[in-house]
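Mods, move this if it's the wrong board.
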Amino acid sequence: MSRLLPVYLGIFILMACSQQQEKNPAYWNGEWQAEWKTDPASFAGIPGITDFTMSGTFTFDGDLVSIKAYGFEGCVFSKDTLDHQLNWKISSDSLILINDEDTPGMVYSIKEADEKEIRLQLMDDIFLTLKK
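Not the wrong board. Structure tokens:
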């Protein structure tokens, strides 16, 4: 048993190191101007919808993100201003917004990301661009 102790200890250390959570990219921190867009063809024939864009802000601060979306009458996304604070993380090629530990949020696919612009996609027809 004593000869196996170093082997077990080595396996334990490797497992502990591999399970460390990835850090969110530092350059995401700060305030970003946001613009959501969708294809008008996806909403053909729906009365009252006159605009297929919406502006807002994303403010990333550590593991929290504050999202403000400035809805208006006729906007396909919302007629009201929305203001949410969520947890977030990057996993592989996705931005994951988390309401709380028991309630998963939205998952945006990351199309491009650098220090000045982040392009995201939700489902097939919602596109979000963040600019510093």
